[in-house]
């Protein structure tokens, strides 16, 4: 039954074992590939946390879209809505944000920034509306529809930068820069850290409050835990709650796209996202769908990516190796998390 | 469109559909056991590289297919060890396995063929026309003048259907995916069933990857799976977790992709991004129309034993 | 210092150079050439080198920041997509010079490096139209970006120069690494009657060659053309010739110019006259190309080098410069 | 001397800080029907789970046929001849009844059709013999709780166990079914097998058992032959010596309830029709009215439209045709507490909040007043004697009877106008049953109190509590004339309807 324990002794041993094993495996593989594992680890750690720039300009900037998409996933999954479409909703948000940011140049920043972010949220929500209606009206499972909508959104964004929103000279597949007034101010002068991070923090705190204190938050949790019991015992309009979860989730993912455009890139490009909408699923699940936990896991994933990039630059480890190392770290974290749970429920385990 | 065009279009549809069909039918079996392996992409790319290396080593494309299957199983084994053995979250584990698959295949490829890569020429799995059948008008060459892996897909569809719905093992597999506690109470070894189902899915994904490298492209390139593992997961749902329907869904998807290339070559003057989005839009339309209501296995993606 | 910087040894490296690519350098194409360029700087100039593969625009700024703040002298950002971030980084790190391959914007320390591959793909177009028996030729692209646009427009012009009535098909696969998609796109063009196909799909190019091979196997006559690197030996049985960029040489020239203090404030054009761009026939198949056609191509090549023939191009660089 | 088939000694089992078993013993002899009794939460299910290979003990030993064994899965237990019928069903809802019966048998490896043919003929024979009737080719998810219970029992019997272990098998069965099940259990014992049975109704236990074991707070406090105990001594053992005098115990023989004055009408159905989940007509033109201060009993064999009638009256379903007038303050005790009554992952407070979250006093439109909800939750816990460390305990960690207490207690809180109760005392121990019955009578004592609709498969309960009785058969209701309001009279009407359906 519980083979790891049986083979290896107590849960602590398994935890240590799993981490050591993955670390050793990673080290051996790197070494076999002709790279210095210690230098790689050092470069990764320094590149993620080692300097002010590493922490503020790189790791934290990277974690902002992960926080927002992670929260998007948390909202949906908490209500039992398996939205795997955050990636597409993010692109929809980015397109809308850029559009407003380009067109609204005459507005004062005080109005333009909210308009840009608002448009991003609305676009993300609208992108989620299609699968929501397909689920509620036609009974089509959302896992597949939201996944398909991702591809459509990515090609829509590609079309936009080649077509209607292409930069004025019509040469490069990108938009022109959005108006100065549409950009998110930098939070810490001299770094790339923009106020989007504050927005992400506020969103996390707000969601945490929503789940704990509000009626709709409670209803979402109930529907997610048992739709039948929510309907029968809780007299909850489960369809309404599902719709709200879809829209809220889409809006947050759309906001992630808007914040990325307004805070970091100032223009829309193809390949804006490396798959944040998918990584977000891991971010949210690792946080057990807890909004505050998402902050921690998003920073973890942001640091992982920052570390992987630094490993390339400063230890000469090629990108493919850095990606492989990332996968090993995630597996080690998973094993650790699992064993922590096991240890907690050891007495009650089956 | 002329008849010749249509025949070529149908051939391309099947060619593009077969790797999806193989990977998706395997994943359908995995998902029927309650395990969603989104590390499928990892198995697929591992299969492509494993297939390429084995084909080079043994100088035979058939050996390459076996090598692909083995590499696919290896990636699935990592997934199963964590997600089924340790009970880690399936989605996160799958993400890690996909990353690992893409990373390690790239690393092995570069270690073997140099940092700048090389345009590998591999022994190819040539089309094997089936005498008689291949001459059927319209569909004959599309269906029956394909690589042997295509025939594997055709044979697997009914075989897996029979397995799932007409054998005791199939019943156990479905029970494990619907309610593992109940299956266990009835004496079924839940973990064993899930591991085997996952490895089977990995083997088929590996063969799909080998097909891409050996029967389709004739080479290996990093990331050449190009997201087909994720498409296959959508195809499983489109095919309602039922192997023959999954095969049809994969062929439908293949046809939509083939149409995209056909329309571009014909010179239809629309932004090409629209063509690229076409297969996905068509699938959405199919779902909204007649394919509607799907129900996933009830225990899909839930770790077992339940945490709490 | 990175693992690739070992050649500097104990002596102080004369300068530090970095390479940014938006795809794997194992593509045996566009990025591989850049990697070889970086290695050339290391081996022939003793540079201390480092590189990073980036995936998103957000990472561009980050990479410039990291290299800029750790004192790299010369950064090769190998793709137009880096240009906006390069301008931002250029302001922040005045001591660093950034070379953006195919870029359009420039500053005192931000230099677009323009490969005039059009010059070679024009010649490829001539060859294609001249060799086509069906009167239909094809182009398979990955993503529609300016360098691809440019080569395709020049290819068309070259083809029309030989055969004004030639039909030219164009398809895009949307990715650089999906070999199977490239093969199907080429296959669809072959089915429409195209018998000479050029590509600009980087790592996926093998799919195009494979499609042509399979068409030949059915008894047809069909040819392929290589792009970016000399691909003639990749599929010597079907590739008539390749439009080549000698990226390493271009990088070396650029680095030398930088060392001489001559780099900055204006774009660098690397074309046929600089010896960076060339069209090379596949010697194995040279006998299949009619002598008049070879002669016509050679004439055109000479006129391009002499500046007498201007091939169509997609203008990258901000207009006020040229 | 008869052989000991199984012996559990000194068994300790902990769940976190809760000690469910604190040194329990159980001895199972060849050829006996052995009843296990105890309060809700006493540890009965835990003990049986250890015998059935579902749970492993923290301490103590399990012997089968005299040899100590480690049962690490139900499969192990099956292999040793131990078959368990679970209190909470272990069925696969998406599979058909036949598939559920065939699952895991592997008697004839290979083709399913062959297995199915065997199982079908075996099952038909068994259904005939036991009187437990279920359609074999429908999905389990469309069955009523009573039908699921039958499937569980049939499945265990089909595997021909030497030790058959049944955890509250009678809670969802009609009286006639209970009688024939008991006859079957006696036959099995006579064949030399052993039967271990948990039941809360003392009279049932006394009717079928050869020996009884009583658990109290995780310890075995009594094991006696049937002959040496009686109802009073058993109740005393169950609730504990001192407390015995203070609890009232409900027993069926009690006189039928006197009719009381009916208050103002609070709910009504007029010619209502509704389909069930699978699209068949469930309620087929029912008109009835419920008044304040009355208990309206609805008797019937389940599967005759109870489910839809309950949902209609509780306002959880709107009729396809006809009309329903339902008040605001409705409480609803659904038939399946684990699927519909509560959320296992939610703690007690949150489960209570399920009923209160819409109530203006506890938050109303946007914010919830958790402090007040916690107070209510704690009140329910204390008042209904829920055995749990506190109100932060997960619903899923409660014993079956304690889950039922939670649901009943919560719904009584909100039932200011109407309470719709499906088998409200299912799974409750003797004292809790009496308590709930008392509550139902008490809230309806005033003509201003809520109306109660009591839908129960337990005819005795309906007759004992109801002011009026209706019989539901084939989706229609029949009023019982005062004269035939007897066990026999109503029973005949119920079965008549049932026969006609079958
Ligand atoms: N989701 C929840 N489940 C169970 N208990 C909760 C939950 N949320 C809050 N509580 C508990 O309820 C208690 C009161 O919390 P809270 O202050 O939110 O209540 P409140 O009724 O809104 O109080 P007030 O109106 O005075 O602000 C605390 O002990 C808190 O731990
Ligand atoms: N999985 C679990 N996690 C935590 N506590 C549990 C769990 N299962 C049972 N318990 C606790 O163990 C005790 C005994 O439970 P058990 O189900 O054995 O009681 P029971 O005698 O069967 O009661 P009932 O008559 O209500 O079915 C209860 O206090 C219960 O809350
Ligand atoms: Mg119990
Ligand atoms: Mg408060």
Describe the structure in brief.
The complex is a heterotetramer of chains A (350), B (308), C (322) and D (502). By secondary structure, chain A is mostly helical.
Report the count of strand segments of chain B. 0
**Total DSSP helices of chain B:** 12
Q: What pattern of helices and strands is seen along the backbone of chain A?
A: HHHHHHHHHHHHHH
The biggest beta sheet of chain A reads: none
Cα shape of chain A:
globular
Layout: helices, strands, pairs:
The complex is a heterotetramer of chains A (350), B (308), C (322) and D (502).
Chain A: H1 3-8, H2 11-32, H3 37-50, H4 52-78, H5 86-103, H6 109-138, H7 142-162, H8 196-213, H9 215-225, H10 227-232, H11 238-265, H12 276-286, H13 291-315, H14 319-344
Helix pairs in contact in A: 2-14, 3-4, 3-13, 4-8, 4-11, 4-12, 4-13, 5-6, 5-7, 5-11, 5-12, 6-7, 6-11, 8-9, 8-13, 9-11, 12-13, 13-14
Chain B: H1 3-32, H2 40-58, H3 61-86, H4 90-113, H5 139-144, H6 148-166, H7 168-178, H8 180-185, H9 190-217, H10 228-238, H11 243-266, H12 272-291
Helix pairs in contact in B: 1-6, 1-9, 1-10, 1-11, 2-3, 2-4, 2-9, 2-10, 3-4, 3-9, 6-7, 6-11, 7-9, 10-11, 11-12
Chain D: E1 4-15, E2 18-29, E3 33-38, H1 44-51, E4 59-64, E5 67-68, H2 74-79, E6 82-85, H3 97-102, H4 112-130, H5 145-158, E7 163-167, H6 175-190, E8 194-198, H7 202-208, E9 211-216, E10 219-225, H8 231-239, E11 265-275, E12 281-291, E13 295-299, H9 306-313, E14 321-325, E15 330-333, H10 337-341, H11 348-356, H12 370-383, H13 400-414, E16 418-422, H14 430-443, E17 451-456, H15 459-465, E18 468-473, E19 476-479, H16 487-501
Parallel strand pairs in D: 3-8, 3-9, 6-7, 7-8, 13-17, 13-18, 15-16, 16-17
Antiparallel strand pairs in D: 1-2, 1-4, 4-5, 9-10, 11-12, 11-14, 18-19
Bound molecules: adenosine-5'-triphosphate (2 copies) and magnesium ion (2 copies).
Residues 349-350, 369-372, 374 of chain D line the site of one adenosine-5'-triphosphate (ATP).
Describe this structure in words.
The complex is a heterotetramer of chains A (350), B (308), C (322) and D (502). Chain A is mainly α. Chain A is 75% helix and 0% strand. Chain A has a domain at 65-290. The longest helix of chain A is centred in the middle third of the chain and has 30 residues, at 109-138. The relative contact order of chain A is 0.20. Chain B has twelve helices and no strands. Chain B has helices at 3-32, 40-58, 61-86, 90-113, 139-144, 148-166, 168-178, 180-185, 190-217, 228-238, 243-266, 272-291. Helices cover 39% and strands 20% of the residues of chain C. A six-stranded parallel β-sheet of chain C has the order 2-1-3-4-5-11, sandwiched between helices. With 502 residues, chain D is of the alpha/beta class. Chain D folds into two domains: 4-244, 3-Layer(aba) Sandwich (Rossmann fold); 265-501, Rossmann fold (3-Layer(aba) Sandwich), CATH 3.40.50.300. In chain D, the strands form four sheets. In chain D, strands 6-7-8-3-9-10 form a six-stranded mixed β-sheet, with helices on both faces. Chains A and B meet through helix 6, helix 7, helix 12 and helix 14 of A and helix 3, helix 4, helix 10 and helix 12 of B. Residues 15, 18, 20, 38, 40-46, 87, 387-388, 397-402, 429 of chain D line the site of one adenosine-5'-triphosphate.
């Amino acid at each position: 039954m519980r083979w790891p324990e049986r083979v290896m002794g107590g849960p602590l041993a398994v935890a240590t074992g799993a981490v050591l094993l993955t670390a050793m495996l990673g080290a051996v593989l790197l070494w076999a590939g002709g790279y210095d594992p210690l230098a790689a680890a050092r470069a990764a750690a320094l590149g993620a946390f080692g300097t002010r720039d590493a922490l503020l300009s790189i790791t934290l900037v990277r974690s902002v879209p992960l926080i927002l998409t992670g929260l998007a996933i948390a909202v949906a999954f908490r209500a039992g809505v398996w939205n795997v479409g955050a990636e597409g909703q993010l692109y929809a948000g980015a397109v809308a944000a850029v559009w407003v940011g380009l067109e609204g140049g005459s507005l004062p920043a005080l109005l333009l920034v909210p308009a840009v972010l608002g448009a991003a949220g609305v676009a993300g929500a609208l992108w989620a509306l299609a699968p929501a209606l397909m689920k509620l009206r036609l009974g089509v499972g959302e896992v597949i529809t939201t996944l398909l909508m991702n591809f459509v959104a990515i090609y829509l964004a590609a079309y936009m930068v080649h077509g209607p929103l292409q930069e004025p000279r019509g040469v490069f597949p990108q938009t022109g820069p959005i108006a100065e007034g549409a950009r998110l101010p930098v939070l810490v002068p001299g770094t790339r850290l923009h106020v989007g991070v504050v927005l992400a923090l506020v969103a996390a705190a707000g969601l945490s409050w929503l789940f704990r204190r509000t009626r709709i938050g409670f209803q979402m949790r109930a529907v997610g835990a048992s739709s039948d019991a929510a309907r029968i015992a809780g007299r909850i309009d489960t369809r309404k709650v599902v719709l709200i979860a879809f829209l809220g989730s889409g809006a947050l993912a759309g906001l992630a796209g808007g914040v990325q455009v307004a805070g970091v890139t100032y223009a829309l490009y193809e390949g804006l996202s490396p798959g944040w909408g998918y990584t977000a699923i891991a971010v949210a699940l690792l946080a057990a769908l807890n909004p505050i936990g998402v902050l921690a896991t998003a920073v973890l994933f942001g640091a992982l990516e920052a570390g992987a990039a630094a490993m390339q630059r400063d230890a000469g480890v090629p990108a493919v190796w850095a990606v492989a190392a990332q996968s090993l770290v995630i597996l080690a974290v998973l094993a650790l998390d699992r064993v922590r749970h096991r240890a907690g429920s050891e007495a009650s385990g089956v | 469109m002329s008849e010749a065009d249509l025949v070529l279009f149908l051939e391309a549809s099947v060619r593009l559909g077969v790797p999806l069909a193989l990977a998706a039918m395997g994943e359908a079996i995995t998902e029927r056991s309650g395990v969603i392996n989104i590390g499928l992409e990892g198995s697929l790319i591992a299969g492509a590289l494993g297939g390429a290396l084995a084909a080079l080593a043994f100088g035979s494309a058939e050996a390459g297919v076996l090598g692909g299957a083995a590499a696919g199983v290896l990636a699935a084994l990592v997934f199963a060890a964590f997600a089924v053995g340790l009970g880690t979250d399936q989605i996160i584990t799958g993400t890690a396995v996909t990353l690992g698959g893409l990373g390690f295949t790239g690393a092995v490829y570069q270690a073997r063929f140099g940092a700048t890569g090389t345009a590998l020429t591999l022994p190819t799995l040539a089309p094997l026309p089936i005498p008689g059948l291949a001459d059927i008008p319209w569909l004959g060459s599309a269906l029956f003048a394909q690589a042997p892996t295509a025939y594997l897909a055709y044979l697997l569809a009914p075989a897996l259907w029979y397995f799932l719905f007409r054998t005791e093992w199939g019943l156990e597999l479905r029970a494990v995916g619907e309610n593992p506690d109940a299956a266990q109470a009835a004496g079924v070894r839940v973990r064993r069933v899930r591991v085997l189902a996952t490895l089977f899915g990995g083997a088929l994904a590996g063969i799909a990857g080998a097909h891409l490298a050996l029967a389709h492209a004739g080479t290996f390139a990093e990331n050449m799976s190009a997201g087909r593992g994720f498409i296959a997961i959508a195809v499983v749902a489109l095919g309602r977790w039922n192997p023959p329907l999954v095969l049809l869904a994969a062929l439908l998807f293949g046809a939509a992709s083939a149409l995209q290339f056909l329309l571009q070559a014909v010179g239809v003057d629309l932004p090409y991004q629209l063509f690229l989005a076409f297969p996905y839009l068509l699938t959405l339309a199919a779902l909204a129309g007649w394919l509607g209501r799907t129900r996933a296995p009830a225990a899909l993606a839930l770790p077992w034993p339940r945490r709490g | 210092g990175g693992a690739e910087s070992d050649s500097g040894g104990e002596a102080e490296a004369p300068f530090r150079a970095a390479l940014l690519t938006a795809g794997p350098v194992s593509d045996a194409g566009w990025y591989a050439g850049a990697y070889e360029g970086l290695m050339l700087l290391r081996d022939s100039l003793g540079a201390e080198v480092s590189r990073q593969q980036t995936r998103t625009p957000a990472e561009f700024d980050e990479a410039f920041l990291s290299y800029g703040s750790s004192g790299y002298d010369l950064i090769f950002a190998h793709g137009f997509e880096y240009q906006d971030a390069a301008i931002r980084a250029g302001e922040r790190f005045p001591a660093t010079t950034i070379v953006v391959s195919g870029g359009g914007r420039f500053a005192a320390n931000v230099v677009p490096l323009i490969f005039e591959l059009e010059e070679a793909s024009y010649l490829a177009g001539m060859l294609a139209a001249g060799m086509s028996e069906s009167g239909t030729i094809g182009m398979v692209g990955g993503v529609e970006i300016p360098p691809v646009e440019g080569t395709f427009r020049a290819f068309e012009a070259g083809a029309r120069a030989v055969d004004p009535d030639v039909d030219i098909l164009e398809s895009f696969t949307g990715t650089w690494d999906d070999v199977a998609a490239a093969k199907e796109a080429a296959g669809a063009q072959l089915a429409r009657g195209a018998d000479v196909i050029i590509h600009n799909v980087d790592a996926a190019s093998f799919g195009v060659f494979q499609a042509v091979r399979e068409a030949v196997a059915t008894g047809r006559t069909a040819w392929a053309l290589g792009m970016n690197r000399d691909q003639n030996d990749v599929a010597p049985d079907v590739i008539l010739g390749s439009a080549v960029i000698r990226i390493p040489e271009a990088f070396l020239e650029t680095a030398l110019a930088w060392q001489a203090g001559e780099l900055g404030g204006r774009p660098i054009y690397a074309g046929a006259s600089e010896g960076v761009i060339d069209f090379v026939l596949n010697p194995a198949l040279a006998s299949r190309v009619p002598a008049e056609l070879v002669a016509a191509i050679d004439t055109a090549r000479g006129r391009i080098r002499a500046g007498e023939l201007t091939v169509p191009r997609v203008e990258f660089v901000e207009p006020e410069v040229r | 001397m008869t052989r000991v088939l199984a012996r559990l000694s000194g068994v300790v089992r902990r769940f976190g800080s809760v000690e469910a078993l604190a040194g329990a013993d159980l001895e199972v002899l060849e050829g006996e029907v052995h009843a296990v009794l105890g309060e809700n939460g006493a540890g009965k299910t835990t003990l049986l789970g250890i015998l059935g290979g579902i749970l492993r003990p923290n301490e103590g030993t399990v012997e089968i046929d005299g040899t100590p064994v480690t049962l690490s899965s139900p499969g192990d237990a099956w292999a040793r001849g131990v078959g368990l019928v679970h209190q909470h069903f272990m069925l696969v809802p998406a599979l058909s009844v036949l598939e559920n019966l065939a699952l895991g048998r592997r008697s004839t490896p290979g083709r399913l059709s062959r297995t199915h043919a065997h199982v079908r003929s075996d099952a038909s024979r068994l259904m005939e013999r036991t009187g437990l009737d279920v359609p074999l080719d429908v999905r389990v998810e469309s069955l009523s709780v009573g039908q699921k219970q039958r499937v569980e029992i049939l499945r265990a019997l089909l595997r021909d166990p030497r030790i058959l272990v049944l955890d509250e098998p009678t809670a969802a069965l009609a009286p006639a079914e209970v009688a024939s099940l008991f006859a079957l259990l006696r036959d099995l014992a006579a064949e030399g097998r052993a039967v271990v049975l948990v039941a809360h109704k003392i009279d049932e236990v006394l009717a079928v058992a050869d020996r009884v074991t009583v658990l109290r707070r995780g310890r075995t406090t009594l094991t006696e032959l049937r002959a040496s105990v009686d109802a009073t001594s058993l109740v005393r053992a169950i609730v504990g010596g001192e407390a015995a005098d203070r609890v009232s115990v409900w027993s069926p023989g009690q006189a039928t309830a006197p009719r009381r004055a009916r208050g103002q009408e609070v709910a009504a159905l007029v010619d209502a029709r509704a389909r069930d989940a699978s699209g068949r007509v469930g309620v087929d033109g029912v008109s009835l009215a419920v008044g304040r201060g009355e208990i309206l009993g609805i008797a019937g064999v389940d599967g005759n439209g109870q489910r839809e009638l309950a949902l209609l009256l509780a306002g959880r379903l709107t009729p396809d045709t006809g009309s329903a007038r339902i008040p605001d303050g409705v409480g609803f005790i659904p038939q399946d507490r684990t699927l519909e009554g509560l959320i296992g992952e939610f703690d007690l407070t949150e489960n209570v909040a399920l009923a209160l979250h819409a109530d203006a006093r506890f938050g109303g439109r946007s914010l919830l007043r958790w402090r007040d909800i916690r107070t209510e939750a704690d009140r329910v816990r204390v008042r209904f004697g829920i055995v749990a460390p506190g109100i932060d305990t997960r619903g899923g960690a409660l014993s079956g009877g304690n889950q039922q207490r939670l649901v009943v207690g919560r719904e009584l809180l909100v039932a200011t106008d109407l309470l719709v109760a499906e088998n409200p005392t299912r799974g409750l121990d003797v004292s809790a049953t009496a308590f709930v019955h008392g509550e139902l009578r008490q809230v309806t004592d005033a003509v201003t109190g809520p109306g109660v609709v009591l839908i129960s498969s337990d005819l005795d309960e309906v007759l004992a509590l109801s002011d009026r009785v209706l019989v539901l058969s084939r989706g229609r209701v029949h009023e019982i004339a005062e004269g035939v309001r007897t066990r026999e009279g109503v029973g005949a009407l119920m079965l008549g309807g049932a026969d006609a359906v079958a």
